[in-house]
User: Fold this.
Amino acid sequence: MHTLWLATIIDGAATEPCDHAVAVDGGAFRPASTATPVPAEFQVDDGTSFLDIRATPHAPALWPVQGQFTFPGSPDLVSIDAPDSFGPPRSSGSPGAFLIVVDSYLSRLRDASAACLASLAASSPPSSTTP
Assistant:
């Protein structure tokens, strides 16, 4: 079993007003423990293949983030589909007892490029009339 620490960074400082949840191998999201103030903690079994990690801030002005990470084995956790809002996972420890830290960076801004492009692609082109 390994310990996953989920830290949240807002405006360059670690903070705690955020809910973290983790889905293991495509299962349902389960909340990370907040028994300690910062960071949130989640226990990962040895046989885990991948994790979905979600950070939902309490402040409505901040956007939630979600990413998927593969767990190829101790102590590695590798991003496979995670936005830049997640820092690279860091790990340390000894066989059978690794600590893995994942930072999520929350923002007041959100990249809406994909939604804008999809909206533009769905609209009809302007009709051209020549006199």
Strands lie at 2-10, 13-15, 18-24, 30-31, 40-44, 50-57, 65-73, 76-81, 90-94, 97-106. The chain has a mean pLDDT of 80. The radius of gyration is 19 Å. The first strand starts at residue 2 and ends at 10.
